[in-house]
Amino acid sequence: MIGQMIINNVLHRPVRTVVSVLAVGVEVMLVVIVVGLTSGLIQETAKRIEGVGADLMLQPPSASVFMAFSGAPMPIRIRDKIHEQRHVQAVAPVLLQFNSSGGLDIIYGIEKDSFYAVSGGFVFHSGGGLENPNDILVDDWYAKAKKVKVGQVLRLLDHDFKIAGIVEHGKGARLFVHMQTLQELSGSRDKASVFFIKCTRPEHTPAVSEAIRKLFPRHEIRALKDYLSLMTSSSLPGLDAFINSMITIAVLIGFLVIFLSMYTTIMERTREIGVLKSLGASRAYIVRAVLSESTLICFIGIAAGIAMSFGVKKFFISAFPTLSILITGEWVLNAAAIAIAAGLAGAAYPAWVASRKDPIEALAYE
Question: What residue segments make up the domains of the chain, in order of their start?
Answer without folding.
Answer: 2-43+238-363, 61-218
